[in-house]
Amino acid sequence: MRKPSVSVVFIYALVLTSVALLLKDPHRLLPLVVFNVSLSLIAGLRKVWWLYLLILVASIGIFTNALFFANTGAVIINTGFLVVRENALKAFVTVTLRVVLIAGVGAFFVALFEPLEIIKGFTRELYMPASISLSLSYALRLLPLLRRDLEEVMFFRSQRGYRRRPLSFGELSSTLSALLITGFERALWSGVSLELRGFRNYRPSHRVSFNMCDVLIITALTAQLIYVVIA
Fold it and tell me: What residues does each domain of the chain span?
């Protein structure tokens, strides 16, 4: 079965991200969150599970922020040293649902496509300049390389008798310097390679083709927008 168009899924994610930022009622956000998180997990559980783990960790900060800036109204929880009031709980739930919805549609987009497919889709379907598409493609491909470089730096630190994980300012500085130098050299030679391959004269073709998956995604987006309006 063919994948949906990159442009359709991108617009789907963009519209629902805007909806997440505009909605303030957690009861209206919850069905959208459940639907889109389920979609992302079905599309690629192995690719996106870590994103929800990060949100779980970030929710601690969201809860702390709500306690400091929105802890008013009726008392909901009182443990003696901690008092949680109605508005703090509502703010925590609302912000968390917004974050999860944005992450859900983003994870759905990332789970469906490889970085190269995303860049080709942006260039061919959304008429994005090839130079910008190249920058995005390079950034997406650089993330796993940075992780590998960091692991190598930590390995060599341990081989030389230093702590594997840098903690002091000097250790952090030396680690980041090594990563920056490696990244700069990689970017330099990547640019040289592209020029030798004739990137300056590259003229991408533009075309948009729809299939049944696109129709289903557009239908799902329309249904969710109708729900937001009438709920």
Answer: 6-120+207-230, 130-201
